[in-house]
Design brief:
The protein has helices spanning 5-8, 13-23, 26-29, and strands at residues 34-36, 40-45, 48-51, 60-64, 77-81, 84-87, 91-94, 98-101, 106-109, 113-115, 120-123, 126-129, 134-135, 140-142, 163-165, 170-171, 176-177, 182-183, 188-189, 194-195, 205-207, 212-215. By secondary structure, it is mainly beta.
């Protein structure tokens, strides 16, 4: 991660203090592993936050790292957490991020996770990212339809389903990742695509509509 000095001017001291001591034990909180931008709205601060790695100052950055095509000064991030979040190392959620984890929901970030700008994650069941994942701008990832659909026998037919994303996955801009999606390690999801189920091939570019393999046996560099 970049030097801490780069972020101090944009940091909300009070939000940073509050979030660390709200969720972490004293010995962890006093090292301030979570750094919060002034432009983050702490809408709901319930649930739990766990850090499953050695504690480092500013290892989790919320609302910084702007993307050039967005107006970072007027962009607002949302923290709406009633469920569980687990961080397994470094994590950077860029300006305008939106996180919503409902009461029974779980959200798991692998090490070295980056989400650039104006992207949204909604977890009612469980969403998990592996290590070294990159989520671009204007992406929506959600494991729920929110509203229930009932069949003629009054049975709920659209239950939330977990989303599992492997290691070193790149999700391009303006993508939609829906409930039940499984994205294997090394995959690239091309811009403006929709994922609704299990993808099988690792190190593969997926895209187009309907989603299909564009290129196999690839790697990507951040």
């Amino acid at each position: 991660m970049s030097s801490l000095k780069k972020y101090l001017a944009e940091t909300s001291i009070w939000k940073t203090i509050y979030l660390n001591f709200r969720y972490l034990d004293f010995r962890s909180a006093i090292r301030f592993p979570i750094l919060v931008s002034r432009r983050v709205r702490l809408k709901t601060t319930k649930g739990t936050v766990s850090i499953n790695s050695p504690i480092r100052t500013a290892m989790i950055r919320l609302g910084f790292d702007s993307c050039g095509i967005f107006d970072a000064r007027h962009s607002r991030s949302i923290w709406e957490i009633a469920g569980e979040i687990t961080f397994s190392g470094l994590c950077a959620l860029g300006n305008g991020f939106k996180l919503c984890v409902l009461e029974e929901g779980k959200l798991n970030f692998g090490n070295n996770f980056v989400m650039t700008a104006e992207s949204q994650i909604v977890a009612q069941k469980e969403i998990s990212f592996g290590n070294d994942c990159l989520v671009s701008w204007d992406v929506l990832i959600m494991d729920t339809d929110f509203h229930s659909i009932l069949d003629k026998n009054n049975r709920h037919i659209n239950q939330p389903k977990p989303i599992v994303i492997g290691d070193k996955v790149w999700i391009g801009c303006r993508n939609l990742i829906l409930k039940g999606s499984e994205i294997p390690s090394g995959a690239i999801i091309a811009a403006n695509s929709k994922v609704t189920g299990k993808l099988l091939q690792t190190n593969t570019v997926y895209g187009k509509e309907p989603l299909q393999v564009i290129k196999s046996d690839v790697t990507w560099i951040r």
